[in-house]
Amino acid sequence: MGKLVRDRIPDRIRREGRESDVRVLDGAEFVEALKAKLREEADEVAAAEPELVPEELADVLKVLRAPATAHGLTLDRIEQLAVDERARSGTFDGRVYLDSW
Questions:
Q1: What does the pLDDT look like over 56-100, one tens digit per residue?
Q2: Is the distance from CB of 17 to CB of 24 less than 8 angstroms?
Q3: Residue 85 falls inside a structural domain
Q4: Is residue 1 part of a domain?
Q5: If you placed Cys at 34, which of 22, 58, 67, 93 could pair as Cys (CB 3.0 to 4.6 Å)?
Q6: Using CA atoms in the order 40, 46, 50, 54, what is the torsion angle rounded to 10 degrees?
Q7: Residue 90 and residue 82: Cα distance in Å, rounded?
């Protein structure tokens, strides 16, 4: 079982005297691996102790940049889409929880 890692991770593994098998993903594989990585990072945010949440959120942001780029988007464009969604649907500031629908 493999996973998408940052570019320098295989070098770190080698410096530690260990070996790893790596390959470069094609476009479709890369997009699917990015989706899995984003889910992994989001799960880490959900499981993090409060003091580690900022670091885990930074990891989510780092991972978000890659699929954005793969889809021809910038973080500025994504932020604009979020602004548009806030105008349509509001924010989470009210802490509204829908028990049924």
A1: 999 999 888 888 888 899 989 999 999 999 999 999 899 999 898
A2: no
A3: yes
A4: no
A5: 67
A6: 50
A7: 10
Question: What is the domain range of residue 69?
Answer: 25-89
Tally Cβ neighbours within 10 Å of residue 59: 18
Number of domains comprising the chain: 1
- Structure tokens of 14? 């080698």
User: Could you tell me the two tokens for 70?
Assistant: 């793969």
Give me the mean pLDDT over the 33-51 stretch: 95
90: left (phi over 0), alpha (psi -120 to 50) or beta: left
